[in-house]
Design brief:
With 243 residues, the protein is α/β, with parallel strands linked by helices. It contains 10 helices and 9 strands. The strands form 2 sheets. Strands 3-2-1-7-8-9 form a 6-stranded parallel beta sheet, sandwiched between helices. It starts with a helix and ends with a helix. The structure holds zinc ion. Zinc ion (ZN) is lined by residues 130, 132-133, 135, 152, 154, 156.
């Protein structure tokens, strides 16, 4: 572990452009459970009788919006969650280095920690738009809607700006993410199993001379591409890295 941290420190010191690519594991220390974890999968299945991939699909949203919003409000929104050590350390890193954060999470905790240059690959619970007239709504409008399905004053459904299964990623965000990864000297992938495509395939765009570090408790299908793998807490590792 100590030796790994020393290698990471060296990578950090010599890097100018850094990409932090984070998944669910970045927010678990803020008490936002990873619903893709074994426990989460079991819970979703026993409560709804279908998998989260089905509930969080565009088709399901369209045909069963009541169940979709029930699930979404119960399992996807953690309104009072606070940034943890990982988010706060990223705030310090951005003062020293050119840092771009690519977030798979939709919780908005990077913004709460005052992180800049955040590319939200899967959108955010904090942005919501009427499907009919395009009016934008806050998270509270979705949470406090009288009916389980939030409606705009025009009658349209308010859809969270989060990327559902079957929906494509925002092209602009995707291109910016690819540019960031291909021009970075150091890419830190943290708290993600790198199983969800196309997000997982993004790291293939890395420059051959750049360093790829994976911080995750479990091994990932992309481990063979990594220069360094650390099975430790993300916040603690980042803190050590910048010491
Ligand atoms: Zn409307």
């Amino acid at each position: 572990m100590n030796n790994d941290i020393n290698i990471l420190k060296e990578y950090y010191k010599s890097a100018n452009k850094i990409v932090f690519f984070g998944g669910a594991g970045v927010s678990t220390a803020s008490n936002i459970p990873d619903f893709r974890s074994e426990k989460g999968l079991y819970q979703v299945h026993s409560e709804y009788g279908v998998s989260y991939e089905v509930i969080l699909s565009h088709t399901y949203y369209k045909y069963h919006p009541d169940i979709f919003f029930d699930f979404y409000k119960k399992h996807m929104i953690y309104k009072d969650a606070l940034p943890n050590k990982a988010h706060l350390t990223l705030t310090k890193i951005q003062e020293e280095k050119n840092l771009i954060i690519i977030a798979q999470n939709i919780d908005g905790l990077h913004q709460k920690a005052n992180n800049k240059n955040v590319l939200e690959l899967h959108g955010s619970i904090h942005r919501n738009y009427c499907e009919k007239c395009g009016a934008s709504y806050s998270l509270n409008a979705v949470i406090n809607s009288i009916n389980i399905i939030p409606h705009c004053h025009c009658g349209g459904t308010i859809k969270p700006d989060v990327v559902l299964y079957e929906e494509s990623l925002n092209q602009d965000i995707l291109e910016k993410s690819i540019n960031a990864i291909s021009s970075a000297d150091l890419i830190i992938v943290a708290g993600t199993s790198l199983n969800v495509y196309p997000a997982a395939s993004l790291i293939r765009y890395k420059n051959p001379s750049s360093k790829l570090v994976i911080i995750n408790y479990q091994s990932t299908p992309q481990d063979e591409y990594a220069d360094l793998i650390i099975h430790e807490d993300i916040g603690k590792t980042l803190e050590e890295m910048i010491k």
